[in-house]
Design goal:
The structure is a homodimer of 338-residue chains.
Chain A: H1 7-13, H2 18-26, H3 33-46, H4 52-59, E1 64-69, H5 75-90, E2 94-99, H6 104-116, E3 121-124, H7 131-139, E4 144-147, E5 157-161, H8 163-176, E6 181-186, H9 192-206, E7 212-217, H10 223-235, E8 244-247, H11 250-263, E9 273-275, H12 281-284, E10 292-294, H13 297-313, E11 321-324, E12 327-329
Parallel strand pairs in A: 1-2, 1-3, 3-4, 4-5, 5-11, 6-7, 6-8, 8-9
Antiparallel strand pairs in A: 10-12
The structure holds a DNA duplex (30 and 30 nucleotides).
Chain lengths: 338, 338
DNA sequence: GCGATTTTTTGAATCGTTTCATTGTTACGA
DNA sequence: TCGTAACAATGAAACGATTCAAAAAATCGC
């Protein structure tokens, strides 16, 4: 009975042709003031809302961009998502968000869905090796930008953060404040991010002849894993203790901090300096505010959208791999030793 | 040049009629094994992907559900979103996610967008008073379910968690473990959630003649605000100190915990018990694992989708307001006093 | 007031599906 | 072999927007 009004209904109601209504919607200055007013009133009276499916069908493509992330709960991605949405909104597109949860199956589902929706393009932080799948997409005319993952530059554009540089930054900061016996705490070395951060730290330590770097393997990347490492350190004699600890992420660092401060055997930063990675909200409000490495997540999201737009617009696009440099955030946990 | 293949192309390539291809896609057993095979091969060879816009146009509605939350970064909503997505996927729908960020303008934009997309229905955690706006939607045939907000049951279905019950649960637990001088720490009383939790706590305290409840106003709901309250408490003499503290959320509680444990003047739970609300990930891995009240977020998301489906399916639906009861999670921070 | 020019308006064609009445085919019992 | 029922395949119409060539109306200069 109360089917939603179509453009035709509006046309009838305003005694005008359908083309005119369409013009009012899309090229307002092609139509005279008088009729525009009449049409707008009709739209209002009928509560007309444009049917995007019909528009899409005619236009040939949608005004949406697909975005698939590994975990929306992860603050890193949450921030990327938000900035991507904002950047997309600015250029009149909307973002369809998919959370793969590190699951290749869900990822594939979203890719299918987005393809059926004829998204303008795809932003993806892939689970595993999906280059084959993405190659297909590319051939079918769906441009894709990889997020937080480097890509074959002859095929895709990508945005990422330089983890090696971040690792260097963290270790260098510890060295600059006078620490010499450093330790790196990090989860399985198989994770690229972890490996790169360690590599960067190694590079910084090599620059100081008298500095050493010890690697402490953690069982995962959680607060609990950090506490495990911390407890182990507390067992050691004071002489054996590193005087600067760099953790592969903030959760680990917070765990280490808990262990060290709880027992009150060691003080941060006097006895040992501590720095994390990611600069999550909790870092600033830790018992001892935690120094950290901040990744430019807003920039990541925005740039990803921009790269995608480039690809959408040009016929044979030049792919670009944009790598951002993270930023050092100094707080109390690495204040100068005295 | 390499426009994506349409159903017509597939039909030609497989030497069948377009209707047959459609049948293969939608009613596979209406078509013989032989032709089905031919059509499927053609689909594969041409890399055909169904155009959802055209399908939608014909069908009259989409297979998507709009979901607008106040803040995707908030673990509460993150969890609701995820479970809603899962529940929707199970019934063959996809979720379009919008983050209003507590901004009425962005909220309105998303409502417009979703309406143009002809979503099957809308799940929304509204910013302010949008009942007028939602009324309009309802009249236009877009069923809506309110999330985390009670609604006029004659108009909308809704899912929410009983904050009063949660407050009662927390206070009762403190009382049950022998505490008598309770304190409630909470942000502006204008926030309904905060007010309700306090009300519930009051109810529990009234049941114990010799118990008292002090209300400590916090400046917001952050770790820092909690630390402010904690510092203030530390200043007091031991006799003046409450022996059980209930914080309106976990962040506040963690802040309070930092203050109390850092100075080492008071011990948790021996001198004072502490309980939070929300059971965020950090609660379990705090210095002293934090007792908390867990909200059944997965259930919320799932139920919201179910209520929406009911409305979509029936012509003149009965609206239901589903209220869930939160759950007590006991950890070390409220262990019996001794 | 007239022709030329510019501005507005018109409406049929189109996009790619699904639907469904119709036609074509096959199988089977008599 | 024929009639009938069951099953398969067909293809035109419809969904609601945009486009664009063509028609209509308004404006202008003289």
């Amino acid at each position: 009975m109360n089917r939603t009004a179509s453009i035709k209904d509006v046309a009838t109601h305003a005694s005008v042709a359908v083309g005119t209504v369409s013009n009012v919607l899309n090229y307002p200055d092609r139509v005279s003031e008088r009729t525009k007013e009449r049409v707008l009133r009709a739209i209002d009276e009928l509560g007309f809302v444009r049917n995007d499916a019909a528009r899409q069908l005619r236009i040939g493509h949608s005004r949406t961009i697909g975005l698939i992330v590994l975990d929306v709960g992860n603050p890193f991605f949450t921030s990327v998502v938000r900035s991507a949405e904002d950047a997309a909104a600015l250029q009149g597109s909307a973002v369809l968000l998919g959370d793969s949860g590190h699951d290749a199956g869900r990822e594939a589902n979203y890719i299918d869905l987005f393809q059926e929706q004829r998204v303008q393009g795809l932003l993806i932080s892939p689970v595993g090796d999906v280059t084959d799948r993405l190659d297909l997409l590319r051939e079918r005319g769906v441009p894709t930008v990889l997020v937080d993952r480097l890509a074959d530059e002859s095929k895709f554009s990508s945005v990422a953060v330089d983890d090696d540089a971040g690792g260097y930054l963290a270790a260098k900061h510890l060295l600059d404040t006078g620490r010499r016996r450093l330790a790196f705490v990090g989860g399985p070395a198989s994770i690229r991010q972890v490996a790169d951060r360690l590599e960067g730290a190694r590079r910084a330590v090599k620059e100081e002849p008298d500095a050493t770097l010890e690697v402490l393997d953690s069982d995962g990347q959680t607060v609990l894993a950090g506490r495990g490492v911390g407890d182990m350190l507390v067992q050691r004699g004071r002489a054996e203790l590193p005087d600067g600890i760099f953790c592969a992420n903030d959760l680990l660092a917070l765990g280490v901090m808990q262990s060290l401060t709880m027992t009150h055997t060691f003080r941060i930063p006097e006895d040992v300096a501590l720095i994390g990675y990611d600069d999550i909200d909790f870092a600033a409000s830790a018992v001892v505010p935690l120094s950290s490495i901040r990744q430019p997540t807003e920039l990541l999201g925005r740039t990803a959208i921009e790269l995608l737009s480039e690809e959408v617009e040009s016929q044979n696009p030049v792919h670009r791999a944009v790598v951002f440099t993270p930023e050092l955030v100094v707080r109390q946990s690495t204040a100068a030793a005295g």
